[in-house]
Amino acid sequence: MASSFAGIEIGKRSLMAHETQIQTAGHNISNADTEGYSRQRVVVKSFEPIYRPDLERAMVPGQIGQGTDVESIERIRDELLESRIVDGTNVETYWDTRDKYYSMIESIYNEPNDISVRTNMDKYWSAWQELSTYPESDAARQAVVVRGQTLANSIQQQYKGLRGIADQVNGDIEATVKQVNDLSRQIAACNNEIVRVEGMGDNPNDLYDRRDLLVEKLAGLINVTVTSRDPDEFMVHTDGQVLIQGDLARQIATVGQIDNHGYGKLVWTDTKLDAEFHGGTLGALVELRDKDLRGEMQTLNTMTLNFADLVNDVHRNGIGKNNTTGIDFFVQHNFVENAHGNYDSDGDGVEDRSYIFRITGTNTLRPQEQVGLSGTMTINGAEGNITVSYNATDTVEEVINRINDSNGEVKAYLDRNNRLVLKATPAAQMGNPDFAIRHVEDSGMFLTGYSGILSGSGAENAFDFNQADAVNVLANAEFSVSPILDPAAYVAVNRIIENDVASVAAGFANTKGYAEASDGRAAVEMAAIRNTKVMIGSERTFDDYFAERITSVGLKGEQAQNQLATQNKIMGDLRDLRDSISGVNIDEELADIIKFQHGYNVAAKFITVQDELLDTLINRLGV
Fold first, then answer.
1. In the prediction, which pLDDT does 201 show?
2. Do strands 319-320 and 505-507 pair parallel, antiparallel, or not at all (unpaired)?
3. Which helix (H) or strand (E) holds 308?
4. Using CB atoms within 10 A of its CB, is residue 48 exposed (0-12), middle (13-18) or buried (19+)?
5. Which of 42, 116, 187, 251 is the most buried (most CB within 10 A)?
6. How many Cβ atoms sit within 10 Å of the Cβ of residue 185?
7. Which of 160, 422, 399 has the alpha carbon at shortest distance from 300?
């Protein structure tokens, strides 16, 4: 049978259970504004009765209860909802970062009309048009020079703006990497402490909350997935790589790259392998720097280089009022001083590569003429060499379009003398140099005897930049050495022309080698470049280039803005739902405290009654 003192024990357990509930409610109230805190509830159960059915017991009406017991203190938390929030945070911060920086990029292109690159280029072409009408005028020549200077300055300014944003993004990448490393270490330290507490049989709820908060913050920086199948080893993965395993946290470092403006690439410190992230703030920053901004600068460099090259080509062949010729209008800086573009790429003292930007064939072609030949051309592409086939019934224009529409990093067009020109574009892969033709080969005769670029067919006569003096396979074709990185950063009018405007070539030399005062043919040809198909990367004309740039930047900015608004709405709903489940409601907690207080008072009264009963039994039982 039950002890006479059992009531005291029941009252004591009740007091302790209600006191624990009051303390837990107070803990909830004190952490109502704590970031990442989940409200806690005390799980109580009835204490085991005196008699169990599998054991012998006295003949009593039924099981005699022994009060209540605190089983555990648990967090009120929806794990599936938390997983969705972690996944969504990654997407939200990705678009937030892109939206912020694309607003800055758009501001560079949305210049006032009177100072934009597009407006200044239009004025430059207009100056040449004016000079073609008045070729004897020094004032018209001065206008060409001044507008050329203004255009060069606006191109430089646009490049500086893009480079400035890239520098800022690079600084943010370095700061974000430090945050990722710090959060990883903190999560690993939490894991270690949690395992120790769990080993004592307790629920470290506050440590769980802290770890979940750190994981959510980490998810805002990089894309993460959490694995807790092993209760003793909490793991965090990112892009298929283990980032945190128990109390071990891998770290990320930045390693500088010469071929990416010195910006560092991300590597794992333990394996030295590349660390790639495709979401969150860090993923967005790396993508902005290495793809978006790099692409914008490459496109501006492509436009600048082709623009200066075409202008210089006409100007070198023209003649100035002072009978000077062979002068470039815009200065160009070659990547190497060697006339054949030879360069020692590995620093061993032996020239092992040829950096050539442009190759011009020796033969005059007619765009609508059928080539009457068949074969396969091989040119370098973004992911290795690609092939372009041609047939006997193809016209020259069709073959050129096929080259330009391929995924090759070599573009083609016919110059002012209808000679075939092959030009290099920026390289998609950082390991490849910009504006350097890496491979040109023809199994047939289109690039050989027909256009006069290569001296022979087949692989043995291919142009390949992975050797010095690669130009020796050219069939006396003209070529130019690749420029120094970022032509848009240094484009400028030639000092010779700035010092003497009479050097501006408006016409071509007559049979005696002199300039006719009324000859404006070179100026006419110069003005016509504006609408000529010159292949600025994938765009055909300069107008195509400007239209594509503005449209592309505007659409990407709009995409980031719309995606961010959508994700903000989704995440707002998810966080509101989490707050309704895990958040602390002050009124609810106060109501619980009052309820638990009444329970505590009643338990105390119960103990008082038991005390009086025992007093009667012990002290007042008749003797």
1. 80
2. antiparallel
3. helix 294-317
4. exposed
5. 187
6. 15
7. 160
